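fold-stage: in
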Amino acid sequence: LSPGDCWPLQGRQGQVVIRLPARVHPTAVTMQHIYKDVSPSGTVTSAPRDVAVFVSLCWALLGVDADGEEETLLGTFTYNVAKEAIQTFPLKDAPLPRAFSYIKLLVKTNWGNPAYTCIYRVQVHGKMA
């Protein structure tokens, strides 16, 4: 990981939708940001803070999947910049009885940077269908 080599989201909020390589029964999500020590600015205010995780069977612009069902909220968590750079968050009701093709990370807030939010790495854990 190199400082600045991230998925940049404009502002303090944003979302990333990831198409999974196969249908997956997700059990956890891992997020990674850089450490404060390697940041050129000496801060990590661009790190996500409060995040919600949703899944869907198909790309859902309006939050509705192909079966007419809304996307499913799997949980919310707080990425803590005072802890390790790599943090894993278990998802509720995991493993789910249904497998999904898409996962959406909705960043509700970051650690104070008004201009942008950076996501360095996301990993989805689970069992392939």
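fold-stage: in (second)
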Amino acid sequence: SFIFHKDCKCILFCHIILLTRLRVVDNSEIGKAAMAEGKPPKCIHVYNKKRVGTVGDKVLVAIKGQKKKGILVGVKQNQPTMIPKFDSNNVVLIDDNGTPLGTRIHVPIPQILRTKLKEKNVVKGADFTKLLAIATRFV
């Protein structure tokens, strides 16, 4: 599937939609086990109106026969200005109220994620500040 990007008039082939494979980048037990087995989680729902995920969006993933929620912290697709492009589609697993399941994030996350998640804290009532606190490096 492809879409036309409104800013640069080019075709984007990679975006987070249903059944996209993701890479867990935190140190949660379920995430480490799934990545070690070679069975990465798959996106089964994107929580926004377009149903296409970008950096900072909340997704529902199927991992080891369970359903878990996660936040996208890195996406392969061509990004707008000020958002870095990553080599893989990265996700951090969270519980229902926004608390991360792991205690550390292994990869750098984009700086723009701070402003995006703070806006979502106000709107939805979920607390994503802990996710930003466990990140060690920002790009």
